[in-house]
Hints:
Shape: elongated
Number of strands: 2
Mean pLDDT: 75
Low-confidence stretches: 20-36, 70-81
Distance between the termini: 152 Å
Order of helices and strands: HEEHHHH
Amino acid sequence: MRSALESRMRRSAAPRAARVAALLASSAIAFAPAIAPAEIYRWTDEQGLERFSDRIENVPEAYRNDVTGALREDPAPGLQPTAPVVPDEPPSAPPELPDAPPVQLPDWSSRLLGLGAAAAFGAALGGVGLWLLLIAFSLRLGCRLVGEEVPGFGRALGVAAVQFLAGIAVGLVLGGAALLGLADPASAPFQGVQMLASLGVNALVIQAMLAQGFGRALAVALISLLVAVVVAVVVGIAVVFAVGGLVAG
């Protein structure tokens, strides 16, 4: 009887085990999509950055044909896939250029520069000499017009040289005042003071060297200055026209 009871229990347990197995199988099939890892799609956008999404609908249509194989990785819950952070590259230092070799001038160029400097110095000395000759001539003419004794040309040339040096001294004093900010060299008062100072110094030189009164010496200085300026302007215009004619020809 005991064996019959055990046999009946085994027969009743078999259908129950089958029902439990079927229930577990159907539950596994129902919950399989929920526990399966999500598919992450990856593509590269137009900026060269990799993009990720777990839905094919989020992939732009222009890149759906370029989507690489789905990654079998489940992203962290609650986090949306984002593009990877590309670290900023440190600025690269500019390449170091090799030092340029020193420029070697040929011998003839140095000689040419020397000749040019000598020519410029000679031209400056020539200009000063011509100006002194012009002042000496104008000084003699001024003495004749004022009624004073006309000095010899050598003596007049010496007076012109002293006037030239005195004019340089006056220019240095006034230029130093302009550099120190005591006067504006472009202003009309400064120009007037410079002209009066130069004229007064010339008159003092004429008075001392030709033994004339200051009033007559001032008149001689003014006449000689005006004559020298007019002659210099006329000669300068004539030279410009002559050089222009040569160049045009």
